[in-house]
Amino acid sequence: MYALGLVMVAGTLVVTYLLAMQMFGRSDLALIAVLLTGGNYSFSCYATGGLETQLQTLLLTSCALIAVRTERLGEGSAPMLLLFSLLSALAALTRLDSGVPVAVMGLTMCWLAIRNSESVGMAVARLGLLALPIVTILGSWMAWKYAYYGSLLPNTFHVKAGEASLLRGGWYVALFLAVYLFVVPLGGVALRLPKLMQALGGTLSVMVLASLGLWLVYVVRVGGDFMEFRFMVPVIPVIAIMSAWAIVEFCTSRRSVGFAVAGMLAASFIHAIAFDNVPWKRGIESVSDLARHLTHPDSNWIGIGKFLGDAFREDASVVVAITPAGAIPYFSDMTSIDMLGLNDKWIAKNGVKLSDRPGHQRISTVKHLVDVGATFVVGHPTMVFDVAQLQRGVRMDQLETMFLGKPMPDPESLPAHAQVVLVPYSKSKHLLAIYLTPTPAMNRRLEELGWQLVPILRAGQAG
Length: 463
Fold this sequence. Notes:
Elements lengths: L1 H23 L2 H12 L2 H5 L7 H21 L4 H17 L4 H17 L4 H30 L5 H6 L5 H14 L3 H9 L1 H8 L1 H20 L14 H15 L3 H21 L12 H9 L5 H12 L6 E4 L4 H6 L2 E4 L6 H6 L1 E2 L8 E2 L2 H6 L4 E4 L3 E2 L9 E2 L23 E5 L6 E6 L4 H10 L2 E6 L6
Parallel strand pairs: 1-2, 1-5, 7-10
Antiparallel strand pairs: 3-4, 5-9, 6-9, 8-9, 8-10
Helix pairs in contact: 1-2, 1-4, 1-13, 2-13, 4-5, 4-6, 5-6, 5-7, 6-7, 6-12, 9-12, 10-13, 11-12
């Protein structure tokens, strides 16, 4: 995944250079765009993040290149039309929200296909070439999705879009533009918008500005993301190209251009080292924060996954309910329930409202976990260093960390037989887990492991 991510980054930088050259025909501007893209901390970090971000960015930037090239050359060759449609379909398969900019570019390509055709028959043929791959691929995929899932929209849409905060989304976009100083050259673009539109031409300017604008509106609408500026990465190449145009437009000498570019790269560097400690993140986790979840001794989700896997991997009947539904299921190889509902249809639509933080808007009820037969509830992993104080039992408020700092949504659904198991993760730390669905075989297994069970102190009980 690291190697593939780096290859995609290299490909995106090449395509960014070609796209800038097609748009403005200036090698200096294209080079600045590449520097602003490659030197952007968020863009670089997701090169090795293992997510779909860089693939989506490469595909969308490539679609833009084909659309611009088609407009600039005044042609619509069959290979280019087919390639645009294929890449658009792949972008939508990578992330369905790619349809936001792809729709704008696709309409532009349809218009170009008609405009550049010498006859009605040629226009129909070109439109057919544009439609063939994307309709075939996405149509087949959508038919399969509906047959398998009973829905065309992904489960994550119901989790993230229904409770999204426009204020949080607006802050997410504004903060990105501010910390990287993109707000300065983009302000220059706004001041010289007529000149930009003249340089690009009406069709191109509408396509580029509409694609970028609609993506930003979409990000605001879904409330941004909790991962550091991940949703901004797909449009960084276009933002960088627009910024490069503003820099060469307003700066009157090579020295001033150099200072402007250096200033923006410096802003990226400052953001990289300072974002961990700024007070205005509003729930956006830095790349360092995300990495610490996996390996820091106080959390170490990778270690927890391996530890649980060593204990239960051979028992297919064990089901664990958790909130970090990536690392722990992967490294434990255990059947897992995502308590935040990203891969649970019932929680996505019926879970209890948790917050307006993207991906963390809903959480499972205890009743649902009982109904689906969860053996253990780990929730958000909670470590304790002094288990002596828990020997008489664990209070309900001491379990709130497992529910991301909130009270248990329906404590009345907690079975009377439920207990807390003190998992001896290390000599100094124990992991708390609710033993929700006991069985004689599991009781014997816990005894073999030497894991201690303590009662849950309900309301009115003292510990």
